[in-house]
Amino acid sequence: MIRQELKKLVIYGFFLAILLIPMLGFRSTTFEPGRAFKTLGVFMAILILNLALKIFRNRRGKEAVVKKSWTERTGEYINRLPKTFTIGGLLLVAILFPIFGDNYVIDVGITCLIYVCLGLGLNIVVGLCGLLDLGYIAFYAVGAYTYSLLNLTFGLSFWSALPIGIVLGMMVGCVIGYPTLKMRGDYLAIVTLGFGEIVRLVLNNWDSLTAGPNGLFGMKRPAVYYPSFSEDGFAWAVYYLKSLPALYYFILVITIFTIVGVRRLDNSRIGRAWIAIREDEVAAELSGVPTTWIKLLAYALGAAFASVAGAFFAAKLSYTNPNFFLFMESCIVLCIVVLGGVGSIPGIIVAAFVLIGAPEIFRGLENYRMLAFGGIMTTMMVLKPEGLIPASRRKRELHENQEALPED
Amino acid sequence: MTNAQTILELSDIHTYYGNIHALKGVSCSIPEGDIACLIGANGAGKSTTLMTIFGVQRASKGQVLFKGQPIQHLKPEKVAALGVSQTPEGRQIFPRMTTYENLEMGAFLRKDKSGIERDMEWVFSLFPVLKDRTRQLGGTLSGGEQQMLSIGRALMSRPELLLLDEPSLGLAPKMVERIFQTIIEINKSGVTIFLVEQNAHMALNISGIGYVMETGRIVLADKAKALLENEQVKKAYLGE
Is 90 exceeded by the pLDDT of residue B162? Predict the structure, then answer.
């Protein structure tokens, strides 16, 4: 056993050295191997500590080894608490958050919540319906640009532009959905990827409408209306949500609506039809599921949620440009869905905070973000393919070989 | 066929997969309340015939009449709503849904809760083994159980016509016998059955009429008993 672990240690160390020495050792002009070796030392120390722990555990007998991982134990502990208590607690934390955080933290919180909305929207398409969409960010862009253009050109308020944005997002969703109805897997991924890029390039090059790479700016922030009684009588007063805490509460409400909406869809007849299509499209068709419509609906509803998030994003920044909607963003959203556990709402919420929040914490590593991303995803897929907080169904499917299989 | 009404009639059906002419003018008719079978070798077009009836594959020419009504232009969900049901070839159940959820999916188009409950009980009485497996994932069932589940799911829509695509595929002889016994039982409860099979012997034995298919055409059509005696069939499909 120790031999095996030592072998692992040597292999890991070797790979780390190959990765780290060029990456950290080379500065723009000089080569500093010391810097790389320092980092390598830290990694090796962690690995050796891990080895020591394993040996220690092994000595203490088998029971320690079969112990569940801490995430699972925490999950079980949370599940034992009454649901209202958990949700109430989380809500309280979410509401009190801006009081204790400074503007920077609140801003990160807002970004996280936007990505929660995006992740939940994509979850409909990827998680429930099983259609791999690599161009999801296009719908986010549609929402952002719809609000921007409607506000700048016609002076429409956020609230009146929002439904138009949703409808437009759904229509664009169907536009991409329709030609890909017969596609699955790799082919679908390529087509959606291309579609995402088309939308971005159109925004980038249609100078007369979208102002090209310069982007659009000067949109009004979302507003709330409240009745005011003055000497002139009754009137609606307008309050623009300019401060970060106000925007934070606004996106919090949107997120809660999204969560409730996606949850309801998940448990509905349509949700079951989506899952059936993911499982076996022909069998779903033979069961009387109108696959064409149900798939289009997945695209349309997924797009609608992204569109709302996009409109908020543009309104919050009061600025938008095509470079916000790079392919990388689609990847991040997909990573959130996969990392959180495909089909799992709480998992996606946690993953959004991890993937968006963590790079903020490790600002210094910014250049290696992609690497960290790859690292996290690879490790996750190897160790916990069902995600951080797996949906119950998903967990069953990935660990089904551990159940007793009856012979044919 | 004179005393019974025809529930399904195919006349001169042509179906293409891209450039491949899979069905070259298939005509057949199935009397109501009967078991009819379609036998033939691999790739003869048997499954395509069923997929064309159900509207999954579109017929480029010809007519499919279900109870006198043309259905060749209808989408699968509309065909299902009319009272036709099909088990896909190779027992494609939903592997990561439980037995119960699989059966529930079969009743997707129905909204009468009590009726669904009742039919669920009916399926369990036909296949008692499924009742012990309600919470088990479809993919973890044995081959025979999956076939039962597939048939059970097809019955959950309360069909008048049940299309079975190779229910004996890959099953042990004993299991095949049990499945065929149940098919007879289902038929006795009033469901017309159109059976597509490679196991010609079993299929012809329980059927009223039989069709023999070769490379996209029906080459023989007769009473099943007569086909069992037919020299040509004996040689080609019964291995005698």
Answer: yes
